[in-house]
Amino acid sequence: MTLRPRLISTVFVLLVFTLALVLAACSTPTTDEVEVDSDGQADSPQNSQGSQPTPGDSGILTTPELVELLAPSVVQVAVSLERGRGVGTGVIFDDRGHILTNWHVVRGASTITVAFADGTIAEGELFRSDPLLDLAIIRVDRMGLTPAMFGDSDTLRVGEDVVAIGHALGLEGGPTVSKGVVSALDRTIIGESGADLTNVFQTDAAINEGNSGGPLVNMYGEVVGINTAKIAIGERIGFAININAARKAAEYLIAQGPLPPPGFLGVGGVDITRALARALRLPVEWGFGVTVIAPGSPADNAGITFDDIIVQLDDVEITRAQDLTDFLRDHPSGTSITVIVVRDARLLITLDATLADQPERGTMDLAPLLPGAYDKPLG
Questions:
Q1: pLDDT(45) > 50
Q2: Is residue 134 part of a domain?
Q3: How wide is the angle at C-alpha 327 spanned by C-alphas 379 and 300, nearest 5°?
């Protein structure tokens, strides 16, 4: 008689304890419920990513998700050149207006125009460049840009899926997307500067003109390379600069600050071509023939005269006006240079000049052009 009441009470206590455990388990928040963060703000896992695509459990994105993620960070780069216009692609590097592209895309550009994914357009300027790595930094006067996510190119494996995004051939309607694999690592090719471009990797993702400067992306949405070249005689043999080298170079270039304005020599003239050289019986088949000299300019002070043919500045051969322009971009005001000219169709003369600031065009009193000559912009 005494054990029964005690047994009943024990069973009752166990039932109450079990029921409490069940209720406690039922009250644990599920993944669909709203949680509160440390700042007291409600945060729903379904909405915390905004409109950006989210990878699956493995972190891998589908190609459409990847393109949607990268779209705000990819721009079209249009340039005006001496002999026409060109189009390339760029990757937004940071939110301060710096855009990463290829050096050969903006080389010799007189104007740079950047078109964003939202349809807006901004004028850009060449901020810094690394010709040996075929990289350039464009700067636009716009804040709050969406930088791309950058991966680790050292972890790439041959056979890994990659996607190339770029404005191939400058076609309207947004960037072109192509998918392929990492075909090979640690390739060496001849870069646009004429020097070896090392440690690039090869891909069979289609890369065409206009893709240059655009991103090559892994399936996590991370930029692992900057598309730079293809082999025309082969099929689907493209190359990308590894992003680790590109990021290191870009950070160094940005830290240096903007380029100083190009130096001013004070000459204008005509490209010496083979046909012109034969017609005028010149001893050289290339160079820059001087037909304009700004009075009081470095060229005037150095003793450059009409009909001189500039064939070398320092150790750089000058075969045409573009070579002269490129040289002056890399040599600011105050730089002392050596000018080698051919004079009177027979003498090779070495002159010394010190570059000056570019004057306002309205203040330049130009010497007249020689009869029959046409002028190129003063440099």
A1: no
A2: yes
A3: 40
